[in-house]
Amino acid sequence: MSSARFFDPHIHCTSRTTDDFESMAAAGVRAVVEPAFWLGQPRTTLGSFVDYFASLVGWERFRCSQFGIAHFCAIGLNSKEANNEALAKDVLELVPRFALKEGVVAVGEIGYDEITAAEERAYQWQLDFAAKHDMVVMVHSPHRDKKRGIQRSIEVARECGVPMSKLVIDHNNEETVQDVLDAGAWAAFTIYPFTKMGSERMVEILRKYGPERLIVDSSADWGVSDPLSVPRTAALMLAKGIDPEWVRRATWQNALDAYAQSGQIDVAALLATPVIDQSKLFNDNSVLRGQAPRVLGANPAAVPN
Ligand SMILES: [Zn+2]
To answer: Which end of the chain is more exposed for a tag (fewer CB within 10 A), N or C?
Structure first.
């Protein structure tokens, strides 16, 4: 597997350890997108969002780079915390301050959780912002009432003028994939190790629908989840006789095509040997904890752009 290259376009790196990054890099994960989401318990002040968004464009990007993984992120107010309307109003005003920074490839993850009016207002506000700035949107879909939630997500995105080529709907399953493909949006699937959508089901979805606009991701976070979902699912797809080109598209190329629309991804650098320079610091801090730095790969100046 080490020669294959994978893109995990939905993983919450801030919840993962450097052991995970080492395993991901060894398994061929070359690039990730980390969307802003909730932290498992509600935030109570705007400052927590400021520091969290800053870590997505700063420290987490640096941490991944130290293991040869290109880190991109999506900035947005998640649907769950959109329901705290007093705070949500201030967070929405904060979104533009971070969403236009380097390395941000989308507005996300946004959408519906319980499909409330407050969620819809925050979703619309952020879709308007994305449409105005020609940005890609990563949509979280509800775990309950998923089909209705996804249909509504697509409808509202259309009303707000977001082109379907810039809409990535995540957490799909067998019941929703056709609606998303028919709309012309990207259909992403989060592969969980034990519950919800698993690798075996993903193999059959790819076999049935083909590789056009299908994307596999891990959505690995602070819960029971697997940062190696993408390479593991790819291995299972190949073992089950799926065309290797289809697997390559679903686990690398489609995510790259969707998010490179942002203009924030240096594709040539992703295709080159990863550069790892652990002698670098971020705000005077390193990930090394006193260990000797590894320096691997080409001189960054020599990587063609
Ligand atoms: Zn997520």
So the answer is: C
